[in-house]
Amino acid sequence: MTTQKRVGILTSGGDCPGLNTVIRAVVSHATLTYGWEVVGISYATKGLQEKTTVPLTLHGLDLRGIDPLLSMGGTILGSINKGDTLAHVDEIMAGYQALKLDALIGIGGDGSLGILSQLQHQGNWQFIAIPKTIDNDVALTERVVGFDTAVNTVVDALNRLTFTAASHDRVMIVEVMGRTAGHLALHAGIAGGADVILIPEIPYTIKDICAHLQELRDRWGRRFAIVVVAEGAHIPDDSLNYAACSKPSCGIGQLIADELRNCSHETIDIRAAVLGHIQRGGIPSALDRLVASAFGKAAVDLIASGKSGEMVAWQNGEVVALPLEAVLAKSPSLVDPHNYLVETARSLGIYVGNLQK
After folding, report:
1. What is the pTM for the complete model shown?
2. Where is the binding site for ATP, in residues?
3. Cβ neighbour number for residue 98 with a 10 Å cutoff
């Protein structure tokens, strides 16, 4: 047993599946193993600023013995991903002291963790970070909380849209999240049977997409296609509709749809679908639950061992601890245009852009 501690936990940035599973693991391990008190901080650093908390106990949310946190999406603590947090440093520091916290666990993406790292240094807090994001762009970790579920959600949507596309000889443009990173589009596109995958890291042209779609029709008799485009994909140099439909006013998915209508003298039936925040919701997958549980336990153990300023990460099938500053220095982690998944996509006949450009 270690000295009694009062540990705060918060979720910051955009929500994703698995956050509540992390909270569950932290509360369970801290309570059962160390006898500590865990306090939930409402709405990330805003909760520290306003000194608002959520009571967290081992079976506080049980309903006739059923624990909902394992499978509940979102976060019971609330989260924010806007505002100028660093403009309220003094209030946040005062709130941390007023809540009598001995340590803090922060669950966030690279942006949120960067801000929390600055606060930790200024306040000399004991702080451990847990990575989560559907973008999968936190560096030096093979897995983050939320990404696997988001991939599954997009793949499910692609499965459904494929049947509609095939029934109507239609080209479906599916825009997915990911900010400046194409991990979500690449993983889901391969697993969901896409014909074209467009990501920010690899240039592409409308001309080459048209040629690929024409080959599907002429060589293989395919009169439908699925095009997955990451929201951060760049507008191609040969765009004809940029002035009429510039990002972000109508979205890259709609722009690509408008461009592809000029592909052929034949009329091409094209639809654009933006999955949007559907990708953030839902019940966490089994893999995300495992990762979240392992990360929560590891974070508590790091606090018990006196560590601070570190992030838990998944490497080679194990949970390790890394200096948070080293992670942030390499984040966001983008898709390597020469990596194995990109080559796998091409080997499956998927158009993924032009490496030579």
Report:
1. 0.94
2. 14, 82-83, 109-112
3. 10
